[in-house]
From TrEMBL:
InterPro entries: 6-hairpin_glycosidase_sf, 6hp_glycosidase-like_sf, Ssp411, Ssp411-like_TRX, Thioredoxin-like_sf. Pfam families: Thioredox_DsbH. The lineage of its organism: Eukaryota, Viridiplantae, Streptophyta, Embryophyta, Tracheophyta. This is Spermatogenesis-associated protein 20-like TRX domain-containing protein. Residues 17-177 form the Spermatogenesis-associated protein 20-like TRX domain. SUPFAM superfamilies: Six-hairpin glycosidases, Thioredoxin-like.
Length: 763
């Protein structure tokens, strides 16, 4: 953790460089550096070849704290700029705009040093082979590492004296990485035990790393990694179906305690909603303050699933908190959802430097002046102290940067604190909400952190999923609930509208209807980069949720078409699995099959689940093709699933989903616009079941019936054979048989809950 050295002035009167013509917020941040930057492209490559000099490649993103630090220390430094301009061709890349380029050189640096990060600093030959690299370099020798000026001189010297050896090493490294990262399956047949072994092993390893004091899996720094909670909840359901209630409750306790501590911690923005990237300490208190869209969407879904399992509105309220933050601060005029908010901002207008967390932290006096008579209650609740509260761990503020400042944290739940104050929980919560509103109004007058208003398809796909699912799941809460700021308490249907607008923006601005291809991102127009595997897989997942939870056939149609394009562009038909890029850009030296489910899930894991979902909707021929591709994909990663399953939690779930003999189908037939139909949809999603497919169909809609006639005649026949009239009918099918149709939400809920009880009693 370090205070930011990033400048709050636009560019200090410096002349612009060629990055001023770019759209990326990150590249534009460097458009007035004295460094003669080039964007990634042929102009830079040809210049390096013509001058016969190495390339300095700098990769980062606009909300990256240490990227800001290195810019101010080195790239705004005239001495450093002269060395770069005299000896190198310097290229600047936004990792969010070109994840394919970032993947190549991050893989190289990680292999070289055992880890990586941003800013990524790599030296390349003119033919783009890596020569040497690292991450952040201070300008001068310190922190036990060579300074950037020293590094530049050494690279220049090595290029002049050991060029052939450097080139040979670079070529060898790329070939070795290419072989290692494009694995092929030796067989398409999956061993029968793979699903059970990988799932159980991953859950066991996570459970052994569980931190009972503050929740989470592993030690500080603490990152929300939603795929970990996803597999734990998935295993909870498996245990319940197998009648292993004590094991199930143990898992539930781990997840709920983790989510409780996250939501009460400083990693959660109590005043404005949403979650920061991670906490530097073990107690989720002092965060790295940037907010990323990919975190918000995934975290919402974990809280929604936990709400379904527990029935506790606390979790649904946290989900609303995040979604309302996104609606208020992260959505453009046409429904597009932006990428991120920076950690750094100026403490006041005109401040010479930005500081990390300046927008979010409070002095005790600021709170007293703002809240008046309720200040003491609020300070006790959020552990606010005149000396500052970043003292819960030696890791919270090791350099004393937040002396006198407070990061709001709830050390005890509101129910306990209200009791101590002698107030009812409702009254106490209303007071806190009114206080947060006042602080929000004060905070809104501070200089805001930079907003990265780039629109990334993959991250929008994750958010679309969250908004679509919330639109139905939140209907399960009791009526008349009172919500407090920053939660708006809107009708959940409004969240569906957000999801549909975001999907429409992508279809209008980032999808080519003639080629059926996606662009990766948008800012003042589509980026030059094509859509990557994550863009297709994450968007298909979001569209399937839009269809299942919202019911419009257009989203299913588009998902099916995108799956066709994804298979054409990325599928390794011989070796199995999906590559991360289309392989059409010769400047991208590696085509990788990614499997790591990290801060974002891997494209292969999401694609596998998409295929399983699609296979349960469409006819036998397509179902067979989809499942064959999943089997082949899992075969590629079989060794990793067995030996390092904790790195692949979502793929472990995919393997188990594939092993389920028959995925549960709920087919709802009726007039979709009717209140009766919507009540049945809400009933369908009132319980947690990751192995369920929902099909909504209106027999009077010719487009829908035409789709099902062409893609699954059984579904079409089910719709036609349902009783005529306005009555909504639900068919629940599993294990190759269907239950008698039901016509009321109560009967449907009972039927869906019975399947778990039946499985449990059968054991």
């Amino acid at each position: 953790m370090s205070s930011s050295a990033s400048s709050s002035s636009p560019h200090g009167g410096r002349k612009p460089n060629r990055l001023t013509a770019e759209h990326s917020p990150y590249l534009l941040q460097h458009a007035h550096n004295p460094v003669d930057w080039y964007p990634w492209g042929d102009e830079a490559f040809e210049k390096a070849r013509a001058k016969d000099v190495p390339i300095f490649l700098s990769i980062g993103y606009s909300t990256c704290h240490w990227c800001h630090v290195m810019e101010v220390e080195s790239f705004e430094n005239d001495e450093v700029a002269k060395l770069l301009n005299d000896w190198f061709i310097s290229i600047k890349v936004d990792r969010e705009e070109r994840p394919d380029v970032d993947k190549v050189y991050m893989t190289y640096v990680s292999a070289l040093h055992g880890g990586g990060g941003w800013p990524l600093s790599v030296f390349l030959s003119p033919d783009l082979k890596p020569l040497m690299g690292g991450t952040y370099f201070p300008p001068d020798d310190k922190y036990g590492r060579p300074g950037f000026k020293t590094v530049l001189r050494k690279v220049k010297e090595a290029w002049e004296t050991k060029r052939d050896a450097l080139k040979r090493t670079g070529n060898l490294v790329i070939e070795q990485l290419r072989d290692a990262l494009s694995a092929k399956a030796s067989s398409q047949d999956l061993p029968n035990d793979l699903a059970v072994v990988s799932l159980d092993q991953c859950v066991e390893k996570l459970a052994s790393s569980y931190a009972p004091n503050f929740g989470g899996f592993g030690s500080a720094p603490k990152f929300p990694r939603p795929v970990e909670d996803y597999i734990m909840l998935y295993k909870f359901r498996k245990h319940m179906e197998a009648g292993k209630e004590s094991e199930a409750l143990n898992i539930k306790k781990m997840v709920t305690h983790t989510l409780d501590c996250m939501a009460r911690g400083g990693v959660h923005d109590h005043v404005g909603g949403g979650f920061h990237r991670y906490s530097v300490d073990a107690c989720w208190h002092v965060p790295h303050f940037e907010k990323m869209l990919y975190d918000q969407g995934q975290i919402v879904n974990v809280y929604l699933d936990t709400f379904l399992i527990t029935g506790d509105e606390y979790y649904s309220t946290v989900a609303r908190d995040i979604l309302d933050y996104l609606r208020r601060d992260m959505i453009g005029k046409e429904g597009e959802i932006f990428s991120a908010e920076d950690a750094d901002s100026a403490e006041y207008e005109g401040a010479p430097r930005k500081k990390e967390g300046a927008f979010y932290v409070w002095t005790s006096k600021e709170i007293e002046d703002t809240l008046g008579e309720n200040a003491e209650l609020f300070k006790k609740h959020y552990y606010v102290k005149s000396s500052g509260n970043c003292d819960l761990s030696p890791m919270s503020d090791p350099h004393n940067e937040f002396a006198g400042k407070n990061v709001l944290i709830e050390r005890k739940p509101a129910s306990l604190m209200s009791s101590k104050s002698g107030k009812s929980l409702d009254e106490y919560s209303q007071i806190l909400g009114a206080c947060r509103q006042k602080l929000f109004d004060v905070r809104s007058k501070r200089p805001r952190p930079h907003l990265d208003d780039k629109v990334i398809v993959s991250w929008n796909g994750l958010a679309i999923s969250a908004f679509a699912r919330a639109s139905q799941i939140l209907k399960s809460g009791p009526t008349g609930t009172r919500f407090n700021f920053p939660v708006t308490g809107c009708n959940p249907v409004e969240y569906l509208e957000v999801a549909e607008k975001a999907a429409n923006f992508i279809k209008t601005n980032l999808y080519d209807g003639s080629s059926k291809r996606l662009h990766h991102s948008y800012r003042n127009g589509p980026s030059k980069a094509p859509g990557f595997l994550d863009d297709y897989a994450f968007l298909i997942n979001g569209l399937l949720d839009l269809y299942e939870f919202g019911g419009k056939i257009e989203w299913l149609l588009w998902a099916v078409q995108l799956q066709v394009t994804q298979d054409e562009l990325f599928l390794d038909k011989q070796g199995g699995g999906y590559f991360n890029t289309p392989g059409e850009d010769p400047s991208v030296l590696l085509r990788v099959k990614e499997d790591y489910d990290g801060a974002e899930p891997s494209g292969n894991s999401v694609a596998a689940i998409n295929l399983i979902r699609l296979s349960s909707m469409l006819d036998a021929a397509k179902c067979t093709d989809y499942k064959r591709n999943v089997e082949h994909l899992l075969a590629v990663f079989e060794t990793r699933l067995r030996q390092l399953s904790i790195a692949l939690p979502l793929m472990c779930c995919a393997a188990d989903m594939l092993s389920v003999p028959s995925r549960k189908q709920v087919v709802l037939v009726g007039q979709k616009g009717s209140a009766e139909f919507q009540d049945m949809v809400a009933a369908t999603f009132s319980s947690y079941d990751p192995n369920r497919t929902v099909i909504q169909i209106d027999p009077s809609n010719t487009e829908e019936m035409g789709f099902w006639d062409s893609n699954n005649a059984n579904i079409a026949q089910m719709a036609r054979s349902s009783p005529p009239g306005t009555q909504t009918v639900a068919h629940v099918c599993q294990d190759f048989k269907c239950s008698p149709p039901v016509t009321s939400p109560e009967a449907l809920r009972e039927l869906l809950n019975k399947t778990v009880a039946a499985a449990s009693s059968a054991v």
